[in-house]
Design a protein that fits this description.
about 250 residues; alpha+beta; two-stranded antiparallel sheet; 8 helices; 11 strands
Length: about 250
């Protein structure tokens, strides 16, 4: 079996995902698929992509859930209705069970930055890592016959031939709502660590004891629309500038 690093890695590169602003657009999913198929060592295959039984390999997926407000039994009772979009990929756990069950050493955790990777030349496709991962983050590529997973776009983040602004995971670069953030979670002064501290970032399924590096920022409580509405003026007396002109135009209609 494969061993984890004997000591804590000096860096803990990972993602912080803000569930408050994720809109479930799947831009991160499409970008991840495109980058890893076009720029990765082995394409992420699809089986029968235009048929009735389509399946394929994705390293990042987005799940959407209806949330029952506190005090209600169905969505919409005792509060505002809510949909939470939940992106999920490999969490690059500190105590990664997918690594320790690997019989060939194909799954391993890097000692310098904590990223969990798969050496596809050593992988025999036994699937033990998928069984061990409590998050369902491992994907069997049926065409290649090996397990694949999120690499944090290691071929981007260390690539000095591309612009510095692009040296982040593809999913982070493409997110239109700025819901995904990348950085070193071992550095308390990093932007991602400060974000986690201020917003109360949480681990996914902490009872599993895997100590995931990736963190989630919980959705903020919604404010009532009625409470935040701006009261309308009873009349336009005293209006100036553009509003005075507009008031005059409307009076003539």
């Amino acid at each position: 079996m494969t061993s984890l690093p004997a000591y804590a890695t000096p860096k803990k590169l990972g993602l912080v995902i803000d569930l408050d602003v994720c809109v479930g657009c799947h831009a991160c999913v499409v970008s991840c698929k495109e980058w890893n198929t076009g720029g990765y060592g082995a394409a992420l295959s699809d089986q029968d992509p235009y048929g009735p039984d389509v399946s394929g390999t994705f390293l990042n997926r987005v799940h959407s859930y209806e949330v029952v407000p506190e005090g209600g039994e169905i969505v919409g009772e005792a509060g505002e209705a809510r949909i939470v979009h939940f992106p999920k990929s490999c969490l690059h756990c500190e105590d990664a069970p997918c690594v320790t069950v690997c019989p060939t050493g194909a799954s391993y955790k890097r000692t310098d930055d904590g990223i969990v990777l798969v050496d596809e030349d050593m992988c025999i496709g036994c699937g033990l890592c998928a069984w061990a991962c409590p998050y369902g983050a491992r994907e069997m590529d049926l065409a290649a016959g090996v397990m694949k997973k999120c690499t944090l776009c290691i071929d981007r983040i260390y690539n000095e031939t591309i612009d510095e602004v692009d040296r982040v995971p593809s999913c982070v670069r493409t997110c239109p709502t700025n819901a995904r953030h990348f950085g070193d979670l071992a550095d308390p002064g990093s932007a991602v660590s400060i974000m986690v501290a201020e917003r109360g970032g949480i681990d996914l399924m902490p009872e599993q004891g895997t100590r995931p590096v990736n963190k989630y920022l919980p959705p903020r409580p919604r404010r009532s629309l009625a409470a935040s509405a701006v009261p309308l003026a009873e009349n336009t007396e005293g209006a100036k500038g553009f509003f005075a002109w507009l008031d005059g135009v409307l009076d003539r209609i």
